[in-house]
């Protein structure tokens, strides 16, 4: 009986040892699965379809004619890039979009026209609600000592829309949505960013012959530039360096 008890005890211990190994294996697999799920969840991925939009600056310039209802003139605007290739457009790279606004009279009577103020805003276009429509750059020009800047056929209104790339609004929104995931071009592409849209607002002051003062017109225009594929060998370190140099 004593020998049988020893055999039973040894057998029970062996079974218990196997059970412990099995539990340990299950816990390890569960932990590994949890880590994989966590890593996947931290990668921001757009689930919606990404639309196709035209690149208005595909030739690095665009010429727009803007109607001003009720007036004897139109506005012609030239948008152009001087030191950046719009066909390789990357959201996180710094760039400047230049603009020149000309007055184009449509009758012999030419009123006095002033550029009362200008506002240019760059927003993201993305297949993700948290990023779509996010303003990432803004330029404002409001004259203080004068009502506006005189523009006519010979003297245009010129300005520059500066886009930093790594802007504070974009960095803050990315952190809110993606947590610790690095902000990179490939990350934005995975999140559904497919273009940048620039919206221009021109506040025009008009004084016709015989008028005692100016009346106001608001003219708006948009330029859309598609996002190029992200660099093949992009790293968080490279993105940080780009942010520093930008």
Write a concise keyword list for the protein shown above.
246 residues, alpha+beta, 4-stranded antiparallel β-sheet, elongated, disordered N terminus
Radius of gyration: 30 Å
Beta-strand content estimate: 25-35%
Count of alpha/pi helices? 4
CATH class: Mainly Beta
Structural class: alpha+beta
E-strand count: 9
Total domain count = 1
Helix content bin: 25-40%
CATH topology tier name:
Immunoglobulin-like
Return the average pLDDT rounded to an integer.
83
- Overall morphology: elongated
Largest sheet: 5 strands, antiparallel
Poorly predicted tracts of residues = 2-41, 235-246
Q: Termini, distance in Å?
A: 85 Å
Secondary structure blueprint with pairings:
Elements: H1 2-41, E1 61-67, E2 73-80, E3 95-105, E4 112-126, E5 135-141, E6 149-150, E7 157-163, H2 168-178, H3 185-190, E8 193-207, E9 215-226, H4 236-245
Antiparallel strand pairs: 1-2, 2-3, 3-7, 4-5, 4-6, 4-8, 8-9
Give an overview of the whole structure.
This protein is an alpha+beta fold and 246 residues long. The chain has a single domain, classed as Sandwich (Immunoglobulin-like). Helices cover 27% and strands 34% of the residues. The protein has helices at residues 2-41, 168-178, 185-190, 236-245; strands at residues 61-67, 73-80, 95-105, 112-126, 135-141, 149-150, 157-163, 193-207, 215-226. The strands form 2 sheets. Strands 4, 5, 6, 8 and 9 form a 5-stranded antiparallel beta sheet that branches. It is elongated, with a radius of gyration of 30 Å. The termini are far apart.
């Amino acid at each position: 009986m004593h020998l049988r008890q020893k055999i039973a005890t040894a057998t029970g211990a062996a079974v218990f040892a196997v059970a412990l190994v099995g539990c340990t294996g299950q816990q390890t697999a569960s932990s590994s699965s949890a880590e994989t799920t966590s890593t996947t969840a931290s990668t921001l991925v757009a689930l919606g379809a990404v639309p196709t939009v035209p690149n208005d600056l595909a030739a690095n310039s665009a010429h727009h004619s803007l109607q001003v209802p009720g007036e004897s003139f139109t506005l012609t605007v030239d948008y152009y890039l001087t030191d950046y290739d719009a066909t390789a457009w990357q959201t996180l790279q710094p760039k400047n979009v230049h603009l020149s606004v000309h007055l184009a009279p449509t009758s012999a009577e030419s009123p006095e026209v002033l550029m009362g103020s200008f506002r240019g805003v760059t927003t993201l276009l993305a297949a993700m609600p948290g990023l779509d429509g996010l303003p990432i750059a803004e330029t404002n020009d409001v004259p203080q000592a004068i009502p506006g800047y005189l523009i006519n056929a010979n003297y245009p209104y010129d300005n520059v829309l500066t886009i930093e790339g790594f802007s504070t609004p974009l960095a803050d929104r990315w952190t809110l949505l993606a947590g610790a995931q690095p902000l990179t071009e490939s990350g934005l592409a995975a999140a559904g960013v497919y273009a940048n849209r620039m919206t221009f607002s021109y506040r025009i002051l008009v004084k016709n012959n015989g008028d005692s003062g100016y009346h106001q017109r608001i003219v708006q225009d948009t330029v859309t530039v598609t996002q190029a594929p992200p660099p093949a060998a992009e790293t968080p370190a490279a993105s940080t360096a780009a942010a520093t140099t930008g």
